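Supplementary notes (optional reading)

For those who missed the lab, this is the record we used. Protein: SCO family protein. Length: 207 residues.
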Amino acid sequence: MQKLLVSVVAIIALVAGVVIFNSLPKPQPQALVYNPPRALEPFMLEGHNGSQLTNADLTGQWTLLFTGYTSCPDICPTTMADLRKIMPQLTSFTERDVRVWMISVDPKRDTLQKLADYNTYFGKEFMGVRAEHKNLYPFVNGLGLMYSIPSEGETDYLVNHSSAIVLVNPDGERHAIFKASHEAGQLPTVDMEQLVQDFQLITQQYN
């Protein structure tokens, strides 16, 4: 009788523990997560390997998209180096491939060859992407990002652009956006440690 009572108490304690655990608030990503994820408008861009990229090229993988350009003096190379550094962690959280698209916002100067040289330096997961402004601007704007277009005739210029990173899920949908922090005297860059934590949570919750 005593053994039965102990067993019943143990079962009750286990059930109570499960109920309490399930009622606890679950960790949530700090990134802006779209619920439901948002479809991307049809697009056609160029990959640095000469391929034509469409919506289908964003399916079946997790893709991090950000705007940049090869002549960028600070934010772009910093972001690329940081993403290369955390790539092993990101790939450990999912069985799907993880890719990075650097979307050039300087089509005037960024040829496919320049993009190929720039992106392949960081690794096989990195793809340089370009298009002329008529196709590029709607795509970038649709991601919730922005960039400036230099005046006609300018040759030596900087391009102002968003520092945020957009996450596209394996269904090719805009799933989340990792915003950059803005601190006085510091480059507006994404917190990569937080991105890693958020990516793990997002991939765990993804169906």
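If you only remember one thing from this example: The helical segments are 2-23, 75-92, 112-120, 133-142, 192-205.
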